[in-house]
Amino acid sequence: MMRWIALAIFFVIALIACAAPTSTPEPTIESTPSLTPTPVPSPTPTIAPSAMPTRVSSELPAPDCATREVQGDGHIGQVVYRQNGIWLHDLDTGERTAFPEGERFLEPEPSDWSPDGGWRAFALEDGSLWIESADGEQRQEILPPGSGVRGSVYWAVSPVYWSPDGEWIAYLVSQGKTDLGHSEYLGIWRVHPDGSEHAEIYAPSDTLVEQPELMGWSPDGQVILFRKGMYHSASGRADGLEIHALPREGGNPRLLGTSLLNPDFLAWSPARDCLALTDGGGREVWYNKQIVVAAPDGSARANLSNDSSRADVQPAWSPDARKIAYVSRPVPEQYPLMTEAIYDTDIWLMNVDGTEKHQLTFTENAGEHYPLWSPDGEHILFVRVENNRSGLWIMETDGGKQRQVAELGAAPPPPSNYYGHIDLTGLYAWYLKGG
């Protein structure tokens, strides 16, 4: 009996030993690559999007911005502005007349119209892309629903941008919805107005992390600019987004800078070959802001400010492209009240290479904003906020002969002050005959 008991114990111990885990390597789990939709094959091959944008290097050369000669006729000129209506003000005679047709000088050109104004591009809810003549008599479908994207899954097209030469239309495609509610696919596409050479040129691999937002074309039509949203964050957008330059034929986007979404933070040079932008994240305009000039394709870039003790915004090119006027302020030691944030700003001037910076306005307890050069390069328009009132002012380019052109009302003029920024785009502009 004892012998059988011993054998039973032996077998139990053996079974336990066999069941004990052995030291083996952890299994390797292959990561599944995120899927980027591949367009349905078509006669025109789709350009594969690049993965990561090329970062700005401090070793990039300064851009070579073309200059030109500008000569005035001895007259200051006329300005169009809003003040309970639209007015045309002759700065030589002082005469002011109602000018309702001046709306076209104050509003940005719509991106969905061809440069010659003959055609409008638009998308329907089914995702098809169309063009229509200005008189409405002709309508042509460029792309049927779901063109080049995966099957008949829901997709949408918005917005659309014509290239400056009218040869291309760029647009953003969104498709599908994930369980988290964001688009399953986002891509930048371009096509000729006749529907040919339809191709995707950029698409992020993870639409939760990155959301491209189209900005439009470079003036030479070689580059498409877009902002990169991150994690669908409204707060992140308020603090500024990266601006990237994407070659029209596809390839690596280049980072031009990080800028707030204010339209007056970007300015093209007169020859349209350089872009000046207010670079720096953070929604507050009184710190971490500098003027940067870049080539549209991102191949050249120069920081013109290089002074962390000041915040520089709202660049404006002189008509000959040799100088830039801008708004500058000292970085405050303490976080200012919003009602104070629009004060303590002045108009400054510098050469296009960042040299010879000097101050043009010295008004105490006031703020100057949004400089605009006269067509002959002899005068600068700007808004002065003082004693809770705002006015449109003009001065010579050396800061002399400052005078008020018009009273604009309570400060700040609408829309209201947002972290020290007043959006004055669409409030006033120089009147150009025939333009």
Describe this structure in words.
- 6% of the residues lie in helices and 37% in strands.
- It has three helices and 27 strands.
- It has helices at 2-19, 103-106, 234-238; strands spanning 78-82, 86-90, 96-98, 119-123, 129-133, 139-143, 155-162, 169-177, 183-191, 199-202, 210-217, 223-230, 241-247, 254-259, 266-268, 275-279, 290-294, 301-303, 310-317, 323-330, 346-351, 358-359, 366-373, 379-386, 389-396, 403-410, 428-430.
- Strands 3-2-1-27 form a four-stranded antiparallel beta sheet. The chain has a four-stranded antiparallel beta sheet with strand order 7-8-9-10, with no helix packed on it. The protein has a four-stranded antiparallel beta sheet with strand order 11-12-13-14.
- β24 (379-386) and β25 form a beta hairpin.
- The longest helix has 18 residues, at 2-19.
- 36% of the residues are buried.
Helix content: under 10%
Regions with pLDDT < 50 over 5+ consecutive residues? 1-57
Q: DSSP strand (E) fraction?
A: 35-45%
**Number of contiguous helices:** 3
The CATH superfamily of the largest domain is Uncharacterised protein PF15525, DUF4652
The overall average pLDDT, rounded, is 84
Strand order of the largest sheet: 3-2-1-27
What pattern of helices and strands is seen along the backbone? HEEEHEEEEEEEEEHEEEEEEEEEEEEEEE
In CATH, the topology of the largest domain is named: Lipocalin
> At CATH's second level, what is the architecture of the largest domain?
Beta Barrel
Radius of gyration: 29 Å
Gross morphology is globular
Identify the CATH class of the largest domain.
Answer: Mainly Beta
Our measurement of the CA-to-CA distance between the termini, rounded to an integer number of angstroms, reads 115 Å
Number of domains: 2
Number of strands: 27
- Structural class, please? mainly beta
Largest sheet features: 4 strands, antiparallel
